[in-house]
Specification:
This protein is of the alpha/beta class. The chain has 2 domains: about 1-230, Rossmann fold, CATH 3.40.50.300; about 375-545 and about 555-600, 2-Layer Sandwich (Nucleotidyltransferase, domain 5). It has 20 helices and 28 strands. The strands form 6 sheets. Strands 3, 4, 5, 6, 7, 8, 9, 10, 14, 15 and 16 form an 11-stranded mixed sheet that branches. An 8-stranded mixed sheet has the order 24-25-23-22-17-18-19-26. Strands 11-12-13 form a 3-stranded antiparallel sheet. Helix 4 runs parallel beside helix 5. It starts with a helix and ends in a 28-residue tail after the last helix. The model is unreliable at about 620-625 (pLDDT under 50).
């Protein structure tokens, strides 16, 4: 090449000076997994094991970190016990992303104080203590703030659920969510904070990373819901040092001297418990348990909501959403004696049981008052199509829950007798009063012989006052229907009737929601569908059988979810803690009020060879409104 050509080349491609951040970004790095990077560059700045990070202390944290670092994985959820090290997964993955990808990141904590504390006492210290991250600092004392962390080629923002602005400002490739089950419940008119934070990664479809870690609370809490929705959920299994068998550790295999059962504090303080292998019955002390955890491994499982335990399943090839679960049994910070003591206390008081499940076993707590699930509700379905009235029914009642956006309605058939046998005939969502009138008064409901049946009575929830006058007007124009209003007490009579001053002749039913929810949720829904008094439902499918393909949505899926929306608090009152839709539940509570008002339990059954009793009115009538 001639001298002139070289001069022309320099003019075309002049030399540029790269900043240290640009040089670091282009420098080829050694291919390391997240766990390998942590052992080389991460320095623990707090806790009992300060100093260089070691995977040997907590081997169950290795695979979640490495899975997050895989190129095809977009989302990872980790459920673990209180103080089990799960947040360290977040710190290591974030630091790895800062060093290798210079990725902009979003950290979301439960509240502003937590966000500031994590930024100041965790992330800033991690940056300053790591040789790899320290080189990426800008040199400005203002770069590492409480709300934003500036490195040479990346930014990390701190956010919290109550500030939607911190969750919806900029596109972010990497999002880290900490203790999501402890976040405040979102307002009804706002987007869920988890979904809002995850939406920040939309513009990075092939490189985004979402990592959520939490201690779980309930099955419908966001952390557990996201875990079970993952394509593959991996549960940590300990390997018995005696027989080599893998197993999920559970408290039923804990053993201690039976004479100490009444002394849980002593069992905890002196660590007097041991674990018995469920395969070979070998005893695990401190050393054996430590070896079992060290040699353990994650295996794919699925959560059985009815059995409340894990079931093995086949692995998924290259999943993009992966979940991980481990418990305090695997944590070096929790002794077997402490777990055994909590297990003993859980048998004596409900609060201790909540702690055992949520903080130790890292499982959702389901007390007796909340022992309901969609599957258990749908198990009450029979083979009747919607609209078919059973032959044993003597009355039809309709109940409506009024919302500003529409109306939820259930129609139920009742049999005479103290058992109060009943069958759901129809459940529907409607968007106008005209549609409600059509369903109640114009649509046909027939028994197995084809005889028409009419609705003889019903209740309409008058709501919180916004639509109260509208409800009163409609009920006054449709005499079989009455207005109603619930109140929550634990020691008041079931219901009373009061005249509505503004609407002459109209009566409003005031009913005790606690009394009737106890009757339904703690009573009726516990009865097997084949037993007397069961709360039976029509088929979940229009023709009695699910269509082929397995992708169809059942008619009663939403109904079943809404009947599982509430649980009792410590005062014995029913609460909708997650603010889930519960409108069909309100309708079915009103159905029980109807049954009590009509005296279903006091009616006599009509025998086939007897004349009809004058007290029981047949339900085959013309479709008049009164």
């Amino acid at each position: 090449m001639s001298l002139q050509a070289l001069l022309n080349q320099e003019e075309l491609f002049p030399a540029v000076t790269l900043t240290p951040g640009e040089i670091e970004a282009w420098r080829q790095k050694e291919p390391l997994s997240v766990s390998q990077w942590a052992e080389r560059y991460r320095v623990v700045t707090d806790g009992p094991w300060k100093g260089e990070w070691s995977n040997q202390h907590t081997p169950y944290l290795v695979e979640p970190m490495d899975a997050w670092g895989l190129p095809h994985v977009r989302e990872v959820w980790v459920i673990g016990p209180l103080q089990g090290g799960k947040t360290q997964i977040v710190y290591n993955c974030w630091a790895y992303g800062q060093h290798y990808d210079q990725a902009w990141a979003l950290f979301v904590m439960a509240d502003e104080k937590s966000a500031v504390r994590v930024s100041k006492e965790r992330l800033q210290r991690i940056i300053k203590a790591s040789t790899a991250l320290r080189e990426l600092m800008t040199g400005s004392p203002l770069s590492l703030g409480n709300y934003e962390l500036h490195l040479q080629a990346s930014m990390t923002y701190m956010g919290w659920p109550r500030s939607e602005a911190t969750l919806a400002s900029f596109p972010i490739p990497q999002v880290f969510l900490d203790e999501v089950d402890l976040w405040p419940v979102p307002r009804k008119d706002s987007m869920d904070a988890v979904d809002l934070a995850k939406a920040r990664t939309t513009t990075f479809p092939f490189s985004s990373k979402v990592l959520g870690v939490t201690t779980t609370t309930l099955e419908d809490a966001p952390g557990w819901e996201n875990l079970v929705k993952c394509q593959e959920v991996r549960v940590y299994m300990a390997k018995c040092p005696h027989c080599g068998g893998l197993q999920i550790m559970h408290p039923e295999q804990l053993r201690w001297d039976q004479e100490l059962t009444g002394q849980p504090d002593r069992i905890e303080g002196e660590d007097l418990a041991w674990y018995e292998c469920e395969l070979c019955e070998g005893a695990w002390g401190r050393l054996e348990r430590r070896l079992a955890v060290q040699e353990g491994a994650y295996q794919p499982h699925r959560w059985d909501s009815r059995a409340q335990w894990w079931e093995p399943c086949q692995p998924v090839a290259r999943p993009i959403k992966v979940g991980f679960h481990f418990s305090a049994f695997h944590s070096p910070f929790v002794s077997l004696g402490k777990i055994a003591a909590q297990f003993i206390r859980a048998g004596q008081e409900a609060k201790a049981a909540v702690t055992l499940y949520n903080k130790v076993l890292a499982l959702p707590y389901r007390g007796e008052q909340a022992a309901r699930s969609d599957d258990l509700i749908l198990a009450l379905c029979d083979e009747r199509p919607p609209g078919l009235v059973p032959a044993d029914a003597v009355l039809l009642t309709a109940c409506v829950d009024v919302q500003r956006a529409g109306f939820y309605l259930t129609i139920r058939a009742w049999a005479a007798g103290p058992e109060r046998d009943s069958w759901l005939v129809r459940a529907a969502y409607l968007d106008s009063w005209a549609a409600v009138e059509k369903v109640i008064f114009d649509d046909h409901y027939r028994d197995p012989e084809g005889a028409g049946c009419v609705i003889g009575f019903g209740l309409v929830d008058s709501g919180d006052g916004a639509m109260q006058r509208e409800v009163y007007d409609w009920c006054q124009a449709n005499p079989p229907m009455r207005a109603s209003k619930g109140f929550q007490k634990t020691n008041r009579q079931p219901y009373t009737q009061a005249k509505v001053d503004t609407h002459p002749g109209l009566v409003c039913f005031h009913f005790n929601t606690t009394y009737y929810k106890n009757d339904l949720l703690d009573g009726k829904l516990r009865i097997a569908p084949g037993d007397p008094g069961a709360w039976r439902l029509h088929s979940n499918w229009p023709d009695g059988e699910p269509p082929g393909g397995g992708h169809a949505v059942g008619l009663l899926n939403d109904y079943a979810r809404q009947l599982c929306s509430e649980a009792k608090d410590e005062r014995g009152l029913w609460r909708n803690l997650r603010r889930r839709p519960n409108h069909f539940l309100d309708c079915e509570v009103l159905q029980l009020v109807c049954a009590d008002y009509l005296g279903i339990r006091y009616m006599q059954r009509q025998e086939p060879d007897q004349e009809p009793e004058p007290v029981i009115q047949p339900i085959t009538r013309s479709h008049s409104r009164w």
